[in-house]
Amino acid sequence: MAGGGNAIRGSRVGAGPLGEAERGEAAPRKAVTYFCTNAHRSVITFAVEATPPDSWDCPKCGLPAGLDEENAPPAPKIEPYKTHLAYVKERRSDAEAEDILEEAIALLRSRRKSGEVIF
Ligand SMILES: [Zn+2]
């Protein structure tokens, strides 16, 4: 019981070394360097307690940048949608595609009727 009383007396609010630290510089930070496939080197600062992600978008070119200078992440495919569409076209005949479309429309109509989809 006596110990608790001493602790309260020992820490005065608004004075002492604690207050000085609080109005000091910004919170401690660490710098992490990311490398993109275009050989850009970007230094990103994080809070010390934060865990830096494995990859970061390069501020200079927007490509993903990694922590390993020798092994920068590859540039992503620019047209994933187009590629996928071409793939679908390759695999399906027009008739099949039409069937799928009909099916989708029928499903949409039944959903709209039951109030699931409103537009
Ligand atoms: Zn870059």
Automatic annotation (TrEMBL):
One of the Pfam families matching this protein, by short name: RbpA
> Where is Zn(2+) annotated to bind?
C36, H40, C58, C61
GO BP terms, alphabetized: positive regulation of DNA-templated transcription
Q: Which gene encodes it?
A: rbpA
Q: Which InterPro entries match?
A: RbpA_sf (IPR038638), RNApol-bd_RbpA (IPR025182)
| Gene3D superfamilies from the UniProt entry | RNA polymerase-binding protein A (2.20.28.270)
The protein's UniProt keywords, in alphabetical order, are: Metal-binding, Transcription, Transcription regulation, Zinc
One MF term in the entry's GO annotations: bacterial-type RNA polymerase core enzyme binding
Q: Quaternary structure?
A: Forms a complex with the RNAP catalytic core and with free principal sigma factors.
Q: How is the cofactor bound?
A: Bind 1 Zn(2+) per subunit.
This chain belongs to which protein, by name?
RNA polymerase-binding protein RbpA
Described by its record, this protein's role is as follows:
Binds to RNA polymerase (RNAP), stimulating transcription from principal, but not alternative sigma factor promoters.
> Which residues does the annotated region (Disordered) include?
1-25
Signal sequence, renumbered to the chain: none
- The species this protein belongs to is Nocardioides albertanoniae
Q: Which domain of life is it from?
A: Bacteria
Return the similarity comment: Belongs to the RNA polymerase-binding protein RbpA family.
Q: What are the names of the required cofactors? A: Zn(2+)
